Amino acid sequence: MKNEKQVDWNKQIVDTITALTLIADENNIPRDSVVDALKDAIIKAYTKEYPETELEVIIDIDSKRININKLFKVVEPYDDLNDYAEMTIKEAQKYDPSLKVGDIYKEPIHLSELSKLSLGLNLSQMFKHNVTSQTNKQVYNNWKPRIGEVVYAEVEKVDSKTGYATVNLEGTFGFVSRQETIPGEILIPGQKYNFYIKDVKEQTKGWPIILSRADAGLVRFLITLNIPEVQEKIIEIKDIARVAGFKTKLSVVSHQISVEPAGTIIGPRGSRIKIIQEQIHGEHIEVIEYDEEFKNYIVNVCAPAEIAGFSIIEPKTIEERRQIILVARGDKLALLIGKRGANVRLIAEMLKANIEINTIEEAHESNLQYQRVDMQSLRQQTFSRAYKKYHSGRDVLSQYNKASRARPNATPTPQTASQLATSIAKKQKSSILEDFKGMNKDDILKELSNVETNENTTDNIDDDFQE
Fold it and tell me: Smallest Cα–Cα separation from 350: which of 253, 214, 249?
Protein backbone atom coordinates (compact mmCIF):
# COMPACT_ATOMS: atom_id res chain seq x y z
CA MET A 1 0.00 0.00 0.00
CA LYS A 2 2.94 2.31 0.69
CA ASN A 3 4.17 2.21 -2.91
CA GLU A 4 0.63 2.68 -4.17
CA LYS A 5 0.20 5.86 -2.11
CA GLN A 6 3.47 7.25 -3.44
CA VAL A 7 2.20 7.06 -7.04
CA ASP A 8 1.14 10.46 -8.36
CA TRP A 9 -1.96 9.39 -10.27
CA ASN A 10 -2.72 12.91 -11.47
CA LYS A 11 0.71 13.05 -13.12
CA GLN A 12 0.12 9.59 -14.59
CA ILE A 13 -3.15 10.79 -16.11
CA VAL A 14 -1.56 13.94 -17.55
CA ASP A 15 1.34 11.91 -19.01
CA THR A 16 -1.08 9.35 -20.49
CA ILE A 17 -3.22 11.96 -22.21
CA THR A 18 -0.14 13.82 -23.46
CA ALA A 19 1.13 10.55 -24.93
CA LEU A 20 -2.26 10.05 -26.59
CA THR A 21 -2.04 13.35 -28.43
CA LEU A 22 1.51 12.57 -29.59
CA ILE A 23 0.49 9.13 -30.86
CA ALA A 24 -2.42 10.66 -32.74
CA ASP A 25 -0.25 13.34 -34.36
CA GLU A 26 2.59 10.96 -35.28
CA ASN A 27 0.21 8.50 -36.93
CA ASN A 28 -1.85 11.19 -38.69
CA ILE A 29 -5.09 10.00 -37.14
CA PRO A 30 -7.72 12.05 -35.31
CA ARG A 31 -7.13 12.45 -31.57
CA ASP A 32 -10.66 11.31 -30.87
CA SER A 33 -9.85 8.02 -32.57
CA VAL A 34 -6.87 7.45 -30.26
CA VAL A 35 -9.02 8.35 -27.25
CA ASP A 36 -11.62 5.82 -28.34
CA ALA A 37 -8.86 3.24 -28.77
CA LEU A 38 -7.74 3.79 -25.15
CA LYS A 39 -11.32 3.62 -23.88
CA ASP A 40 -11.88 0.37 -25.70
CA ALA A 41 -8.56 -1.03 -24.44
CA ILE A 42 -9.38 -0.21 -20.80
CA ILE A 43 -12.83 -1.81 -21.05
CA LYS A 44 -11.53 -4.96 -22.76
CA ALA A 45 -8.56 -5.32 -20.41
CA TYR A 46 -10.69 -4.91 -17.28
CA THR A 47 -13.49 -7.19 -18.46
CA LYS A 48 -10.91 -9.83 -19.33
CA GLU A 49 -10.15 -9.97 -15.61
CA TYR A 50 -13.78 -9.50 -14.56
CA PRO A 51 -15.93 -10.68 -17.49
CA GLU A 52 -19.33 -9.77 -16.04
CA THR A 53 -18.40 -6.20 -15.15
CA GLU A 54 -19.74 -3.30 -17.19
CA LEU A 55 -17.54 -0.20 -17.39
CA GLU A 56 -17.90 3.42 -18.42
CA VAL A 57 -14.71 5.28 -19.39
CA ILE A 58 -14.66 9.06 -19.82
CA ILE A 59 -11.47 10.71 -21.16
CA ASP A 60 -11.27 14.48 -21.47
CA ILE A 61 -8.21 15.55 -23.45
CA ASP A 62 -8.64 19.28 -22.79
CA SER A 63 -8.88 19.01 -19.01
CA LYS A 64 -6.62 15.92 -18.96
CA ARG A 65 -8.98 13.74 -16.90
CA ILE A 66 -9.81 10.05 -16.98
CA ASN A 67 -12.86 8.77 -15.12
CA ILE A 68 -13.69 5.06 -14.92
CA ASN A 69 -16.97 3.79 -13.43
CA LYS A 70 -18.41 0.36 -12.77
CA LEU A 71 -22.04 0.21 -13.88
CA PHE A 72 -24.66 -1.55 -11.72
CA LYS A 73 -28.29 -1.96 -12.61
CA VAL A 74 -30.60 -1.20 -9.64
CA VAL A 75 -32.98 -4.16 -9.04
CA GLU A 76 -35.32 -5.63 -6.48
CA PRO A 77 -33.71 -8.31 -4.29
CA TYR A 78 -33.82 -11.86 -5.73
CA ASP A 79 -31.88 -15.12 -5.51
CA ASP A 80 -28.65 -15.47 -7.53
CA LEU A 81 -28.12 -11.70 -7.76
CA ASN A 82 -25.21 -10.82 -10.12
CA ASP A 83 -22.91 -8.91 -7.79
CA TYR A 84 -20.74 -7.73 -10.71
CA ALA A 85 -23.52 -6.03 -12.68
CA GLU A 86 -26.50 -5.62 -10.33
CA MET A 87 -27.25 -3.90 -7.00
CA THR A 88 -30.38 -4.05 -4.85
CA ILE A 89 -32.44 -0.91 -4.43
CA LYS A 90 -31.75 -0.89 -0.71
CA GLU A 91 -27.97 -1.02 -1.24
CA ALA A 92 -28.01 1.58 -4.00
CA GLN A 93 -30.00 4.10 -1.99
CA LYS A 94 -27.30 4.08 0.67
CA TYR A 95 -25.10 5.87 -1.88
CA ASP A 96 -27.80 7.82 -3.66
CA PRO A 97 -31.32 8.02 -2.13
CA SER A 98 -32.78 9.30 -5.44
CA LEU A 99 -32.11 6.03 -7.27
CA LYS A 100 -35.05 3.88 -8.36
CA VAL A 101 -35.38 0.32 -9.67
CA GLY A 102 -34.11 0.23 -13.28
CA ASP A 103 -31.63 3.09 -12.79
CA ILE A 104 -27.86 2.69 -13.25
CA TYR A 105 -25.56 3.23 -10.30
CA LYS A 106 -22.00 4.31 -11.16
CA GLU A 107 -19.22 3.25 -8.83
CA PRO A 108 -15.92 5.09 -9.46
CA ILE A 109 -12.78 2.96 -9.97
CA HIS A 110 -9.42 4.33 -8.91
CA LEU A 111 -6.63 4.03 -11.47
CA SER A 112 -4.64 2.03 -8.95
CA GLU A 113 -6.84 -0.92 -9.84
CA LEU A 114 -5.40 -0.76 -13.36
CA SER A 115 -1.84 -1.05 -12.08
CA LYS A 116 -2.06 -4.81 -11.55
CA LEU A 117 0.57 -6.56 -13.71
CA SER A 118 -1.74 -8.78 -15.74
CA LEU A 119 -4.19 -5.95 -16.33
CA GLY A 120 -1.37 -3.60 -17.32
CA LEU A 121 -0.04 -6.06 -19.92
CA ASN A 122 -3.49 -6.63 -21.41
CA LEU A 123 -4.14 -2.91 -21.52
CA SER A 124 -0.87 -2.20 -23.34
CA GLN A 125 -1.42 -4.93 -25.96
CA MET A 126 -5.00 -3.96 -26.61
CA PHE A 127 -4.16 -0.27 -26.89
CA LYS A 128 -1.43 -0.97 -29.46
CA HIS A 129 -3.82 -3.21 -31.37
CA ASN A 130 -6.51 -0.53 -31.37
CA VAL A 131 -4.10 2.22 -32.47
CA THR A 132 -2.90 0.01 -35.34
CA SER A 133 -6.51 -0.63 -36.30
CA GLN A 134 -7.32 3.10 -36.26
CA THR A 135 -4.16 3.89 -38.25
CA ASN A 136 -5.02 1.32 -40.91
CA LYS A 137 -8.57 2.60 -41.05
CA GLN A 138 -7.27 6.09 -41.71
CA VAL A 139 -4.91 4.77 -44.41
CA TYR A 140 -7.77 2.78 -45.92
CA ASN A 141 -10.03 5.84 -46.15
CA ASN A 142 -7.26 7.95 -47.72
CA TRP A 143 -5.98 5.39 -50.23
CA LYS A 144 -9.07 3.39 -51.23
CA PRO A 145 -10.18 6.05 -53.77
CA ARG A 146 -6.71 5.86 -55.38
CA ILE A 147 -6.99 2.24 -56.54
CA GLY A 148 -6.00 2.16 -60.22
CA GLU A 149 -3.50 5.01 -59.93
CA VAL A 150 0.26 4.70 -60.35
CA VAL A 151 2.74 6.07 -57.80
CA TYR A 152 6.45 6.70 -58.26
CA ALA A 153 7.94 5.63 -54.94
CA GLU A 154 11.11 4.35 -53.30
CA VAL A 155 11.66 0.76 -52.25
CA GLU A 156 12.34 0.73 -48.50
CA LYS A 157 13.45 -2.90 -48.14
CA VAL A 158 13.19 -6.31 -49.78
CA ASP A 159 12.89 -9.58 -47.86
CA SER A 160 15.62 -11.84 -49.25
CA LYS A 161 13.68 -15.01 -48.37
CA THR A 162 10.20 -14.18 -49.61
CA GLY A 163 11.04 -11.50 -52.17
CA TYR A 164 8.36 -9.26 -50.69
CA ALA A 165 9.11 -5.53 -50.91
CA THR A 166 8.09 -2.63 -48.68
CA VAL A 167 7.62 0.70 -50.48
CA ASN A 168 7.79 4.08 -48.77
CA LEU A 169 4.68 6.11 -49.59
CA GLU A 170 5.57 9.10 -47.38
CA GLY A 171 3.51 8.71 -44.23
CA THR A 172 2.66 5.07 -44.79
CA PHE A 173 3.97 2.04 -46.66
CA GLY A 174 2.89 -0.12 -49.58
CA PHE A 175 3.45 -3.85 -49.96
CA VAL A 176 4.57 -5.74 -53.09
CA SER A 177 4.29 -9.53 -53.04
CA ARG A 178 6.42 -11.79 -55.23
CA GLN A 179 3.38 -12.47 -57.44
CA GLU A 180 3.08 -8.74 -58.18
CA THR A 181 6.69 -8.31 -59.31
CA ILE A 182 8.02 -8.74 -62.85
CA PRO A 183 9.78 -12.11 -63.20
CA GLY A 184 13.52 -11.56 -63.47
CA GLU A 185 13.39 -7.99 -62.16
CA ILE A 186 15.22 -7.26 -58.90
CA LEU A 187 13.88 -4.32 -56.90
CA ILE A 188 16.75 -2.44 -55.29
CA PRO A 189 16.22 -0.69 -51.91
CA GLY A 190 16.77 3.06 -52.22
CA GLN A 191 15.69 3.19 -55.87
CA LYS A 192 12.37 4.52 -57.16
CA TYR A 193 9.95 2.67 -59.45
CA ASN A 194 6.44 3.09 -60.78
CA PHE A 195 3.89 1.00 -58.86
CA TYR A 196 0.26 0.34 -59.73
CA ILE A 197 -2.12 0.62 -56.74
CA LYS A 198 -3.93 -2.69 -57.06
CA ASP A 199 -5.90 -2.87 -53.81
CA VAL A 200 -6.31 -1.33 -50.36
CA LYS A 201 -7.42 -3.72 -47.66
CA GLU A 202 -9.19 -2.85 -44.41
CA GLN A 203 -7.13 -4.86 -41.91
CA THR A 204 -5.34 -4.58 -38.59
CA LYS A 205 -2.12 -6.41 -39.38
CA GLY A 206 0.52 -5.46 -41.92
CA TRP A 207 0.32 -2.72 -44.51
CA PRO A 208 -3.04 -2.46 -46.25
CA ILE A 209 -1.86 -0.89 -49.54
CA ILE A 210 -1.18 -3.59 -52.15
CA LEU A 211 1.11 -2.44 -54.96
CA SER A 212 1.96 -4.15 -58.25
CA ARG A 213 4.46 -4.00 -61.08
CA ALA A 214 2.86 -6.97 -62.85
CA ASP A 215 -0.59 -5.48 -63.51
CA ALA A 216 -1.63 -4.44 -67.03
CA GLY A 217 -2.71 -1.11 -65.54
CA LEU A 218 0.96 -0.15 -65.14
CA VAL A 219 1.62 -0.59 -68.89
CA ARG A 220 -1.55 1.37 -69.76
CA PHE A 221 -0.31 4.21 -67.53
CA LEU A 222 3.19 4.22 -69.04
CA ILE A 223 1.83 4.29 -72.59
CA THR A 224 -0.53 7.15 -71.72
CA LEU A 225 2.33 9.02 -70.02
CA ASN A 226 4.80 8.62 -72.89
CA ILE A 227 2.58 8.80 -76.00
CA PRO A 228 1.08 12.31 -76.49
CA GLU A 229 -1.55 11.01 -78.94
CA VAL A 230 -2.93 8.71 -76.22
CA GLN A 231 -2.91 11.55 -73.67
CA GLU A 232 -4.82 13.75 -76.11
CA LYS A 233 -7.25 10.86 -76.82
CA ILE A 234 -6.44 10.86 -80.53
CA ILE A 235 -5.54 7.20 -80.01
CA GLU A 236 -7.59 5.04 -77.64
CA ILE A 237 -6.48 1.82 -75.97
CA LYS A 238 -9.44 -0.54 -76.37
CA ASP A 239 -8.20 -3.77 -74.75
CA ILE A 240 -5.06 -4.68 -72.86
CA ALA A 241 -3.84 -7.96 -71.40
CA ARG A 242 -0.58 -8.87 -69.72
CA VAL A 243 1.44 -11.86 -68.60
CA ALA A 244 4.21 -10.07 -66.71
CA GLY A 245 7.70 -10.95 -67.86
CA PHE A 246 6.39 -12.52 -71.09
CA LYS A 247 4.26 -10.10 -73.07
CA THR A 248 1.72 -7.31 -72.95
CA LYS A 249 -0.78 -7.25 -75.82
CA LEU A 250 -2.98 -4.25 -76.50
CA SER A 251 -5.37 -3.12 -79.22
CA VAL A 252 -5.70 0.50 -80.26
CA VAL A 253 -7.93 2.62 -82.47
CA SER A 254 -7.37 6.07 -83.95
CA HIS A 255 -9.98 8.80 -83.82
CA GLN A 256 -8.12 10.87 -86.41
CA ILE A 257 -7.90 9.54 -89.97
CA SER A 258 -4.33 10.74 -90.53
CA VAL A 259 -2.94 9.00 -87.44
CA GLU A 260 -2.09 5.30 -87.74
CA PRO A 261 -2.59 3.98 -84.16
CA ALA A 262 -0.27 0.98 -83.84
CA GLY A 263 2.63 2.55 -85.73
CA THR A 264 2.32 5.80 -83.77
CA ILE A 265 2.64 4.00 -80.45
CA ILE A 266 5.51 1.81 -81.65
CA GLY A 267 7.36 4.75 -83.18
CA PRO A 268 10.11 4.81 -85.84
CA ARG A 269 12.09 1.57 -85.54
CA GLY A 270 10.32 0.90 -82.25
CA SER A 271 11.80 3.98 -80.55
CA ARG A 272 8.67 4.91 -78.61
CA ILE A 273 7.77 1.44 -77.39
CA LYS A 274 11.38 0.82 -76.29
CA ILE A 275 11.12 3.66 -73.77
CA ILE A 276 8.17 1.90 -72.16
CA GLN A 277 9.81 -1.52 -72.33
CA GLU A 278 12.85 -0.21 -70.45
CA GLN A 279 10.58 0.67 -67.52
CA ILE A 280 9.16 -2.87 -67.27
CA HIS A 281 12.39 -4.87 -67.45
CA GLY A 282 12.42 -5.18 -71.25
CA GLU A 283 9.08 -6.99 -71.47
CA HIS A 284 7.75 -7.43 -75.02
CA ILE A 285 4.80 -5.19 -75.94
CA GLU A 286 2.63 -6.17 -78.90
CA VAL A 287 0.38 -3.48 -80.40
CA ILE A 288 -2.44 -4.44 -82.77
CA GLU A 289 -5.22 -2.48 -84.47
CA TYR A 290 -8.71 -2.80 -83.04
CA ASP A 291 -11.48 -3.87 -85.42
CA GLU A 292 -15.17 -3.36 -84.67
CA GLU A 293 -15.92 -6.45 -86.73
CA PHE A 294 -15.39 -9.13 -84.08
CA LYS A 295 -14.49 -11.82 -86.61
CA ASN A 296 -11.68 -9.65 -87.97
CA TYR A 297 -10.65 -8.72 -84.44
CA ILE A 298 -10.15 -12.41 -83.57
CA VAL A 299 -7.58 -12.70 -86.37
CA ASN A 300 -5.84 -9.47 -85.28
CA VAL A 301 -5.61 -10.58 -81.66
CA CYS A 302 -4.13 -13.96 -82.63
CA ALA A 303 -1.43 -12.33 -84.79
CA PRO A 304 1.43 -12.87 -85.37
CA ALA A 305 0.25 -16.47 -85.05
CA GLU A 306 -1.81 -17.56 -88.05
CA ILE A 307 -5.09 -19.40 -87.70
CA ALA A 308 -6.94 -21.43 -90.33
CA GLY A 309 -10.33 -20.58 -88.89
CA PHE A 310 -12.50 -20.22 -85.81
CA SER A 311 -15.86 -21.13 -84.36
CA ILE A 312 -17.77 -18.88 -81.95
CA ILE A 313 -20.13 -20.41 -79.36
CA GLU A 314 -22.29 -17.74 -77.76
CA PRO A 315 -23.10 -18.08 -74.02
CA LYS A 316 -26.51 -19.30 -72.93
CA THR A 317 -26.59 -17.15 -69.77
CA ILE A 318 -25.23 -13.74 -68.77
CA GLU A 319 -22.87 -15.34 -66.25
CA GLU A 320 -21.18 -17.54 -68.86
CA ARG A 321 -18.39 -16.41 -71.16
CA ARG A 322 -18.36 -16.72 -74.90
CA GLN A 323 -16.33 -19.69 -76.16
CA ILE A 324 -14.08 -19.49 -79.21
CA ILE A 325 -12.49 -22.52 -80.86
CA LEU A 326 -9.39 -21.57 -82.83
CA VAL A 327 -8.34 -23.89 -85.64
CA ALA A 328 -4.68 -23.87 -86.68
CA ARG A 329 -2.18 -25.92 -88.60
CA GLY A 330 0.01 -28.17 -86.48
CA ASP A 331 3.18 -26.19 -87.25
CA LYS A 332 1.48 -22.94 -86.07
CA LEU A 333 0.38 -24.24 -82.64
CA ALA A 334 3.52 -23.38 -80.71
CA LEU A 335 3.36 -19.68 -81.59
CA LEU A 336 -0.39 -19.57 -80.98
CA ILE A 337 -0.19 -21.21 -77.55
CA GLY A 338 2.99 -19.47 -76.41
CA LYS A 339 5.40 -20.40 -73.65
CA ARG A 340 3.52 -22.25 -70.90
CA GLY A 341 0.25 -21.20 -72.54
CA ALA A 342 0.94 -17.50 -71.95
CA ASN A 343 -0.08 -16.33 -75.43
CA VAL A 344 -3.41 -18.14 -75.42
CA ARG A 345 -4.14 -16.61 -71.99
CA LEU A 346 -3.55 -13.17 -73.48
CA ILE A 347 -5.86 -13.97 -76.39
CA ALA A 348 -8.58 -15.14 -73.99
CA GLU A 349 -8.30 -11.97 -71.93
CA MET A 350 -8.31 -9.69 -74.97
CA LEU A 351 -11.36 -11.39 -76.48
CA LYS A 352 -13.04 -11.87 -73.09
CA ALA A 353 -13.75 -15.49 -73.98
CA ASN A 354 -12.79 -19.05 -73.14
CA ILE A 355 -10.38 -20.29 -75.78
CA GLU A 356 -9.99 -23.82 -77.12
CA ILE A 357 -7.45 -24.74 -79.80
CA ASN A 358 -7.88 -27.49 -82.40
CA THR A 359 -5.64 -28.58 -85.22
CA ILE A 360 -7.22 -28.80 -88.68
CA GLU A 361 -7.15 -32.58 -88.36
CA GLU A 362 -8.91 -32.50 -84.97
CA ALA A 363 -11.54 -30.12 -86.35
CA HIS A 364 -12.28 -32.50 -89.24
CA GLU A 365 -12.40 -35.53 -86.95
CA SER A 366 -14.93 -33.84 -84.65
CA ASN A 367 -16.86 -32.51 -87.65
CA LEU A 368 -16.42 -28.95 -86.34
CA GLN A 369 -18.16 -26.31 -88.42
CA TYR A 370 -15.85 -23.32 -88.43
CA GLN A 371 -15.30 -20.16 -90.43
CA ARG A 372 -12.23 -20.41 -92.65
CA VAL A 373 -9.61 -17.66 -92.66
CA ASP A 374 -7.53 -16.97 -95.76
CA MET A 375 -4.54 -15.22 -94.19
CA GLN A 376 -3.05 -14.19 -97.55
CA SER A 377 -6.31 -12.67 -98.72
CA LEU A 378 -6.79 -11.01 -95.34
CA ARG A 379 -3.35 -9.39 -95.51
CA GLN A 380 -4.12 -8.05 -98.96
CA GLN A 381 -7.44 -6.60 -97.73
CA THR A 382 -5.69 -5.01 -94.76
CA PHE A 383 -3.08 -3.43 -97.03
CA SER A 384 -5.72 -2.08 -99.39
CA ARG A 385 -7.75 -0.57 -96.53
CA ALA A 386 -4.67 1.02 -95.00
CA TYR A 387 -3.51 2.35 -98.35
CA LYS A 388 -6.85 3.98 -99.09
CA LYS A 389 -7.22 5.34 -95.56
CA TYR A 390 -3.77 6.90 -95.15
CA HIS A 391 -2.97 7.86 -98.76
CA SER A 392 -6.25 9.51 -99.75
CA GLY A 393 -5.58 12.75 -101.58
CA ARG A 394 -1.90 12.02 -102.24
CA ASP A 395 -1.67 9.40 -104.94
CA VAL A 396 2.04 8.60 -105.11
CA LEU A 397 1.76 7.35 -108.71
CA SER A 398 0.57 10.72 -109.97
CA GLN A 399 4.02 12.24 -109.52
CA TYR A 400 5.28 10.19 -112.45
CA ASN A 401 3.06 12.06 -114.89
CA LYS A 402 5.81 14.24 -116.38
CA ALA A 403 3.48 16.29 -118.48
CA SER A 404 1.38 17.52 -115.57
CA ARG A 405 4.49 18.23 -113.52
CA ALA A 406 6.26 20.13 -116.29
CA ARG A 407 3.24 22.24 -117.24
CA PRO A 408 1.06 22.61 -114.12
CA ASN A 409 -1.37 24.98 -115.86
CA ALA A 410 -1.77 22.87 -118.94
CA THR A 411 -4.21 20.06 -119.43
CA PRO A 412 -2.41 16.79 -118.46
CA THR A 413 -1.64 14.47 -121.33
CA PRO A 414 -3.60 11.26 -120.80
CA GLN A 415 -1.51 8.14 -120.28
CA THR A 416 -2.49 4.58 -120.85
CA ALA A 417 -1.91 2.07 -118.06
CA SER A 418 0.94 0.59 -120.07
CA GLN A 419 2.61 4.00 -120.50
CA LEU A 420 2.25 4.74 -116.79
CA ALA A 421 3.75 1.39 -115.81
CA THR A 422 6.62 1.88 -118.26
CA SER A 423 7.39 5.34 -116.87
CA ILE A 424 7.54 3.92 -113.36
CA ALA A 425 9.88 1.18 -114.53
CA LYS A 426 12.26 3.76 -116.01
CA LYS A 427 12.47 5.77 -112.80
CA GLN A 428 15.42 5.35 -110.45
CA LYS A 429 15.10 2.61 -107.89
CA SER A 430 15.56 5.01 -104.96
CA SER A 431 12.64 7.13 -106.13
CA ILE A 432 10.20 4.21 -106.22
CA LEU A 433 11.40 2.76 -102.93
CA GLU A 434 11.01 6.09 -101.15
CA ASP A 435 7.32 6.23 -102.05
CA PHE A 436 6.68 2.63 -101.07
CA LYS A 437 8.97 2.59 -98.06
CA GLY A 438 7.89 0.05 -95.47
CA MET A 439 5.60 -1.86 -97.88
CA ASN A 440 6.07 -5.50 -98.70
CA LYS A 441 7.04 -6.31 -102.30
CA ASP A 442 4.16 -8.70 -102.81
CA ASP A 443 1.72 -6.12 -101.48
CA ILE A 444 3.01 -3.51 -103.95
CA LEU A 445 2.56 -5.93 -106.83
CA LYS A 446 -0.97 -6.70 -105.68
CA GLU A 447 -1.77 -3.00 -105.50
CA LEU A 448 -0.51 -2.58 -109.05
CA SER A 449 -2.33 -5.68 -110.25
CA ASN A 450 -5.02 -3.54 -111.86
CA VAL A 451 -2.33 -1.78 -113.91
CA GLU A 452 -1.32 -3.28 -117.24
CA THR A 453 2.31 -3.92 -116.23
CA ASN A 454 4.93 -5.52 -118.42
CA GLU A 455 7.79 -7.82 -117.54
CA ASN A 456 10.18 -4.88 -117.25
CA THR A 457 8.11 -3.25 -114.46
CA THR A 458 7.96 -6.43 -112.39
CA ASP A 459 11.65 -7.10 -112.83
CA ASN A 460 12.48 -3.55 -111.77
CA ILE A 461 10.56 -3.93 -108.48
CA ASP A 462 12.11 -7.39 -107.96
CA ASP A 463 15.58 -5.93 -108.35
CA ASP A 464 14.86 -3.14 -105.86
CA PHE A 465 13.73 -5.55 -103.18
CA GLN A 466 16.63 -7.93 -103.77
CA GLU A 467 19.01 -5.09 -103.11
Answer: 249
